[in-house]
Amino acid sequence: MSEEQEQEQGPGAGNGAAGGKPTTRDALIEAAFQLFLDRGFEQTTIDDITGRAGVGRRSFFRYFPSKEDVVFPDHEGALAEMTAFLDACGDGGDPVTQVCDAARLVLRMYAANPTFSVERYLLTRKVPTLRIHELSVVWRYERTLAAHLRARYSARADGALRADVVAAAVVAAHNHALRTWLRSGGAGDVREAVDLALGFVIDTWSEQPRPGADAPEPADDVVVLVARRGTPMWRVVQGIESALDG
Predict the structure, then answer these.
(1) What is the domain range of residue 120?
(2) What residue ranges of the chain have pLDDT lower than 70?
(3) Same-domain pairing of 183 and 114
(4) Residues 159, 198 share a domain
(5) Are residues 14 and 78 in the same domain?
(6) Cβ-proximal residues to 139 (8 Å cutoff; 6+ apart), any chain
(7) 83 plus 34 within the same structural domain
(8) Helix boundaries (H) for the chain
(9) What's the pLDDT score for residue 8?
(10) pLDDT one-digit tens code per residue, 203-213
(11) In terms of Cα–Cα distance, which of 33, 35, 34, 28 is closest to 60?
(12) 3-state SS track over 131-180
């Protein structure tokens, strides 16, 4: 089987192709992370990675444009999936719920392999260039969400502003829950945590209440009574009671 015919698997999945043999792509990812953890990112070269994986240098660039990209092998696919999902939403439905559902596609990528996700998080915290690369990826997700919202809010005077603010809120809520989970070493149910965070965004920005969401508490009545100085207290109380009864 040629490298072009190999079935691509998730990052660090270790399942390989149907016969159980890791694909070239998986072998490169696994080799890279072993070396990054053992030697450090900056100290590891592409030749080191291909040598550990047992493939030629050309094989690396067939799958990854740079050494940074091997740390984030799944984001291009997630971005494409997010874009296709939002395109399929069309002009119906609640746009805030739609972009929150799109963010859950990214979460699914992280939750599919907690060990890999935690290792990548720890590595990214140590290497500034990787952190910059990660921020550029997050920015692309945010721009994709904002583009969908801008189209949906195009008739509003504040449409562009609202789209950018909501997109930023979705990314911030998603990342808050995700990074809390990653810092814990992958403990707990990250899906539940992200659902809670994104629910907050929907409750704040959506004009369509979520099914099952708690209804807002009715505001307490406020009565303002104006009376002349010297008005008997019984008449003031009577006036207040009359207003409340009405």
Answers:
(1) 74-205
(2) 1-21, 209-227, 233-246
(3) yes
(4) yes
(5) no
(6) none
(7) no
(8) 24-39, 46-53, 57-63, 75-89, 95-111, 114-126, 128-152, 159-183, 190-205, 233-245
(9) 40
(10) 999 988 666 65
(11) 28
(12) HHHHHHHHHHHHHHHHHHHHHHCCCCCCHHHHHHHHHHHHHHHHHHHHHH
